[in-house]
Specification:
Number of strands of chain B: 20
Largest sheet of chain A: 2 strands, antiparallel
Number of helices of chain A: 3
Strand order of the largest sheet of chain A: 1-2
CATH topology of the largest domain in chain B: Beta-lactamase
Strand content of chain A: 5-15%
Largest interface: A-B, 33 and 41 residues
Number of helices of chain B: 17
Oligomer: heterodimer
Helix content of chain B: 25-40%
CATH architecture of the largest domain in chain B: 3-Layer(aba) Sandwich
CATH class of the largest domain in chain B: Alpha Beta
Distance between the termini of chain A: 102 Å
Number of domains of chain A: 1
Radius of gyration of chain B: 38 Å
Order of helices and strands of chain A: HHEEH
Number of strands of chain A: 2
Shape of chain B: elongated
CATH superfamily of the largest domain in chain B: DD-peptidase/beta-lactamase superfamily
Helix content of chain A: 55-70%
Chain lengths: ~100, ~550
């Protein structure tokens, strides 16, 4: 009787293993398809980013400035820059840097 | 009769043997029938399991095969500090023809001339006649690829190739470097990180900033015809962690064109160029004096002579109007040579060289690219100590100069210049007395802010710039020439140093037409430079650079008080 139980249990375990293996193979296939899709999307994103980097490169932006904006885009003076901080729901605006002449 | 009896005995023996065999066959049918059936099933199951395992292992093998085959055609991208592409890998297709396999030569030539109207068909015909494989079109356009493959000629061979695109063209040529046709780096980051780039899945992130790099390069390019310099270099580095935000060396080259460059003028001046940098070394002399406790900023040096002689060679002040009584800080502000010699003599022949070594100025530096220069070694003596105190007879690279200035101004902490963005911060190790920076930084600020200083053109409002100028005669084959190397080492903001900017102009000339605007609040302007010194050349360039990059640095990289 013991032998029968042992053999049956081994047989059942083998059956279960093969069933699990089968189901994991299906999951693996799904994962493979998803990974491939992600890879393609990443590749597309990379190409789009490359295009964006090229079109928004400093060289291109300066070309656009001279062609279309001329005096509309001017370099910011650090003295005119302000810093905004939130303190107890109050907005505090301070100078980013102090004028050298004020310090002297 | 006896014989017969014997025969009978033999027969009996035979019978015994026969009965034995019979009993053996009886053993086979002694198995329990059910156990036997299960045993068979068990064997079948084992075979089935082995088969399953075998299939599983086969799949794994296939995966590894695809990964390894991908690796041959793989090279990771390189991005800047903000994630902008500096290098992007794309796969391209090359089309070649194997003349031996051509089906119809005339038809093929007609179709090629139709698809590629700009190609010289005679040349292609000549190549076909040579009966050797040749490339018809490298990096073919997708529409042309389709048309060519639809010809259906089996002599047409396509091969996929890895191509590196450099969207920033010249901007990072000396940093990035190049690869060869076999996907092997041959210079710059491409060479020193060759193995990593073939393995890592994410792009390699650098510390450089494309916008800042562009603005610095633009200024260097703009000033090249003004001062007619042979070349120039600039390094912008974080003094607290050694991260290099920008490193430019001119002339540079477009990486997309993949040229073999043999002209020495194209070397990376920022890292490979080894120069005598002149008075920028006086900062280290003062720092050594402060570190060893032999001077204070107010220490007075009286009756300083106008010239000294060492080994029958004179050491003079660059300006005859140099006062004879100077404090240590005035020696640095007014760039006194004799005063610097006196300070170095106080530090001594044992401690001064080891101080310079601790700043990483004397030996070849370990860096992220292999194109690094080695300072010329020499034997220390009394005369060498004297000349090295004001930056003559001692060489180093602009990269090492940036490192030295970082250490003496950041509180005395050692840093390692790097181009690679690291997630973890290295532990800071203090190598200088903590008072050195506190005492030295206000002096460096005065060199830029006071009228006595030599770098007033860099006194840009809002940045608290400090620094030191250095004008040195260039040595050609061991003999000093009339050519100069003008350097300005700027640190800002001096109240809490964050950045060091080195600007080096190689062989600049005086310009009589350029208009200078004084930054002392007088509103004066002056046409033409009086002297071909760093104060009139490199300082002006550095000032313009900081004016341009300052707003980006202030908003992206630092918090200005």
């Amino acid at each position: 009787m013991k032998k029968i139980v042992l053999v049956i249990s081994i047989f059942v375990l083998i059956l279960i293993t093969s069933l699990i293996k089968n189901s994991t193979k299906k999951i693996e296939d799904k994962l493979f398809v998803i990974n491939e899709n992600i890879r393609l999307l990443k590749s597309e994103l990379g190409d789009v980013l490359l295009e964006y980097n090229y079109l928004s490169s400093p060289e291109k932006l300066l070309q656009h400035q001279t062609n279309y904006f001329e005096n509309d885009l001017v370099q910011m003076n650090i003295i005119k820059m302000k810093k905004i901080t939130l303190d107890n729901n109050d907005l505090i605006i301070t100078d980013l840097t102090k004028n050298q002449k004020d310090n002297e | 009769m006896n014989k017969r009896n014997n025969e009978n005995i033999v027969l009996e023996e035979y019978e015994i043997e026969f009965s034995y065999k019979k009993s053996k066959s009886n053993l086979n049918i002694q198995f329990n029938r059910i156990a036997f059936i299960f045993f068979i099933i068990f064997i079948i199951s084992i075979i089935y399991t082995i088969q399953l395992l075998h299939l599983g292992s086969l799949n794994l093998d296939n995966k590894t095969q695809t990964i390894s085959s991908n690796k041959i055609n793989y090279r990771a991208d390189i991005v800047d500090n903000n994630g902008n592409y500096l290098v992007k890998t794309v796969s391209t297709i090359d089309i070649g023809i194997n003349p031996v396999e051509i089906i119809n030569k005339k038809h093929l030539l007609v179709m090629i001339s139709y698809i590629f109207p700009n190609k010289d068909i005679r040349e292609i015909k000549k190549k076909i006649d040579k009966k050797k494989f040749f490339y018809l079109e490298k990096n073919i356009k997708p529409e042309h690829y389709k048309e060519v493959m639809l010809l259906g000629d089996k002599s047409i061979k396509s091969s996929e190739r890895l191509t590196r695109l450099y969207p920033q063209k010249n901007l990072f040529s000396h940093i990035i470097g190049q690869i060869d046709d076999d996907n092997t780096g041959i210079s710059g980051i491409e060479k020193s990180f060759d193995d990593e780039l073939k393995i890592i899945k994410e792009p390699l992130k650098l510390t450089v900033d494309t916008d800042i790099q562009f603005l610095i390069r633009e200024e260097l390019v703009r000033f090249q015809p003004i001062f007619q310099n042979k070349g120039s270099a600039a390094i912008l580095m974080d003094v607290n962690n050694g991260n290099i935000l920008s490193m430019v060396s001119l002339p540079d080259f477009d990486l997309n064109k993949r040229k073999d460059i043999n002209d020495v003028n194209y070397i990376n001046r920022a890292t490979k160029g080894v120069y005598e940098l002149g008075s920028v070394f006086k900062t280290f002399t003062i720092a050594a004096g402060l570190n060893e406790g032999v001077i204070e900023p107010e220490t007075e040096f009286k009756d300083l002579p106008k010239s000294l002689k060492c080994a029958k060679r004179p050491i003079r002040e660059y300006d005859d109007k140099m006062p004879t009584d100077l404090t240590a800080s005035q020696i640095l502000i007014q760039s006194g040579n004799i005063g610097a010699v006196r300070i170095a003599q106080r530090v001594g022949l044992e401690k001064f060289p080891s101080f310079l070594e601790s700043l990483g100025l004397m030996n070849k530096i370990k860096f992220d690219i292999e194109e690094v220069g080695k300072p010329i070694s020499f034997r220390w003596g009394k005369c060498r100590l004297a000349t090295a105190s004001f930056g003559h007879g001692i060489t180093t690279t602009p990269l090492q100069l940036a490192k030295g200035y970082s250490i003496v101004t950041n509180g005395g902490y050692d840093i390692t210049p790097t181009l690679i963005k690291k997630n973890s911060l290295n532990k800071k190790k203090r190598i200088l007395n903590n008072q050195v920076s506190k005492k030295l930084n206000p002096i460096l600020r005065k060199i830029v802010s006071s009228k006595d200083g030599t770098a007033n053109f860099a006194n840009i409002n809002g940045y608290e710039i400090g620094g030191k100028t250095g004008t040195a005669q260039k040595s050609v084959n061991g003999v000093y020439s009339n050519f100069k190397v003008n350097t300005f080492a700027a640190v800002f903001p001096m109240s809490k140093p964050k950045f060091v900017l080195i600007v080096l102009l190689d062989e600049p000339k005086a310009n009589k037409e350029y208009i200078y605007y004084f930054k002392d609040g007088s509103g004066w302007k002056h046409k033409g430079n009086w002297r071909n010194t760093a104060g009139w050349t490199s300082v002006e360039v550095a000032g313009k650079i900081i004016e341009k990059i300052g707003p980006i640095l202030a908003t992206k990289y630092m918090e200005v008080k």
